[in-house]
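Let's practice the habit of predicting before peeking. Look at the sequence and jot down your guess about where helices and strands might fall. Then scroll down.
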Amino acid sequence: MRPMKIIFAGTPEFARVALERLHAAGFDIPLVLTQPDRPAGRGMKLQASPVKQFALDHQITVAQPHSLRQDGKYPDDAAAARDAITSAQADAMVVAAYGLILPQWVLDAPRLGCFNIHASLLPRWRGAAPIHRAIEAGDAQTGVTIMQMDAGLDTGDMLLVERLPIAATETTGQLHDRLAALGGRLMVEALELAACGGLRPVKQPAEGVTYAHKVEKHEAAIDWRLPAEVTARRVRGFNPFPGAATALAGETVKVWMAQADTATAAGAVPGQVLSVADDGIRVQTGDGVLVLTELQRAGGKRLPAGDFLRGFALAPGQVLDGAGAQKVGH
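Done guessing? Here is the structure:
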């Protein structure tokens, strides 16, 4: 029996992990779609996506259309992509964090349609940032849903679902890596079932729909009026991007790890430093105390609190400013 032929569409590391898993499993991958190269790094040089880098390393044809809409701003790109997709004669398309909306002609092109790897338990956290938002919301669990794509935003029938617990101290970066590995494994399983007609689509429930809106840089600024528990979750949810930030005397400081403490200090204002020690900097919030344990100065390295304090003068009584963090980024 010939291996199933699939087109793969994806862009970041989450997608690269899935592509690597599918390649290793022996699927025939004649075409990879990924986003155009973007400027990155200090020199802002054009950089290929992780998916493109993998495809080139394994001699897989790559297409990078700016859009797939034939009536949009880039009709030539869409037409070229249509030719490439048609020529591939794929059984299915696998989509993972691609970043472009798929018009109906793409959904209809492969014999078995388009399968999506989504990093949440649908219909919770449809949208762009399901991992960040699950941690920010304090969810106890998440998982991966393999979905048959339709024209809506993550609204298609569910094909396979597997759950993962979220650890109390887990960051988005750590959870991302676990979900990426799970997504790759589940997609291999889904395609093997699809090949023998063994998939059983299940409609998403109408209740429990939430949207994971894209994380914006301005969300990084810590609002010290919020409860410590909420801010601790945001610190973990925004690690590694965009990174929670505060400021002192106009200098931005990134906060990479923090934990909530229910203790409070009478008379202290939100943002006020209560104590500084090697094991953490205790800061008053709107409800409770946040203990900052890993920090970074602009242009510096991430450091444990003790090492950070040796290069940054911080004393009890000083007040950190969340809003000021929006003025200076790095």
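How did you do? Residues 172-195 form the longest helix (24 residues).
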